[in-house]
Amino acid sequence: MASLTKDIDGLFEQLKSTEPRPITDILEKISKKDGTFHSRYSSGWKIKNINNPALPSCLKEGGIYVFWRMNDQADSLKPFYDEEQCSRKYTLQGKKITSPSAMNMFQQVEIEITDDWLERYKGHIPLYVGKNTDCLLKRFTLHLQINHEQYKGKTTSNQLRRGIKTLFPNSHTTDLIVNHIGYTVINLHGYENAVNRFYLEDYLIGKLLPLFNIDIER
User: Fold this and answer.
1) What's the pLDDT tens digit per position in 124-133?
2) Nearest partner of 129 among 42, 194, 203, judged by Cα
3) Beta strand 181-187 with 27-29: parallel, antiparallel or unpaired?
4) Which of 161, 132, 147 lies closest to 31, judged by CA?
5) 36-52: per-residue pLDDT in tens?
6) How far apart are CA 1 and CA 161, in angstroms?
7) Which residues pair with 112 in a beta bridge?
8) What is the per-residue pLDDT for 98?
9) How many CB atoms sit inside 10 A of residue 40's CB?
10) Of 210, 183, 205, residue with least CA distance to 27
11) Is pLDDT larger for residue 78 or for residue 41?
12) For residue 123, what are the β-bridge partners?
């Protein structure tokens, strides 16, 4: 039976005190013998197989995860203040407009990542919080689609890559992921932890204010 059985405050403190792992922990380079890339791996990268002994075991179970922009150098935030590199405004689709003259049109809500918002982060910048029932690696694979140069999906799984591409439209998204993204997890496996995962995910979103979790009311 699923019920609230965990100390959510304690789990938050545990996650906050854990240094994010580099995303390269779960990636491996892949290319043909002549150095060119296969069409299935146009980025030159792929996610490690779940049976790879080098894969962190925490990703083989379900739980809560946070993707971070690693902020471990004095100038890590500098790109966010360079208008030529970073576009801190983006638009989300809101409710459908009910006017007869506006068929199939939706409210457009402009989001701005302000200086005040960025400056509240004294360490790594939280980008996205999510959860998964039984295998975090499967969810990471959907989020990153690291084997592709361009994201192929149209689901909520694309919020991380879409957000990175929106913020840094003139940069190579795969390179940004490989060089600057990290992750932390709290394992809460199986349906028996459904309630714990639900509340911890919401708690983390409210506490961390990740850049790409914003959802517009419908």
Assistant:
1) 999 999 999 9
2) 203
3) unpaired
4) 147
5) 777 777 788 999 999 99
6) 35
7) 89
8) 77
9) 9
10) 183
11) 78
12) none
By the 10 Å C-beta count (0-12 exposed, 13-18 middle, 19+ buried), 13 is classed as exposed
Beta bridge partners of 184: 66
How is residue 204 written in tokens? Answer: 């983390």
Q: How is residue 16 written in tokens?
A: 């906050």
Q: b vs e for 67-85, b when ≥16 Cβ sit within 10 Å of the residue's Cβ?
A: bbbbbeeeebeebbeeeee
Angle at which helix 173-180 crosses helix 159-167, to 10 degrees, equals 100
Contact of 81 with 155, CB cutoff 8 Å: no
The DSSP result for 95-154, as a single string, is EEP--GGGTT-EEEEEEE--HHHHHT-SSSEEEEEEEESS-HHHHHHHHH-TT-SS----
Q: Which of 80, 71, 92, 65 is nearest to 162 (CA)?
A: 92
How many angstroms separate the Cα of 170 from the Cα of each of 15, 50, 129, 175?
32, 33, 25, 12
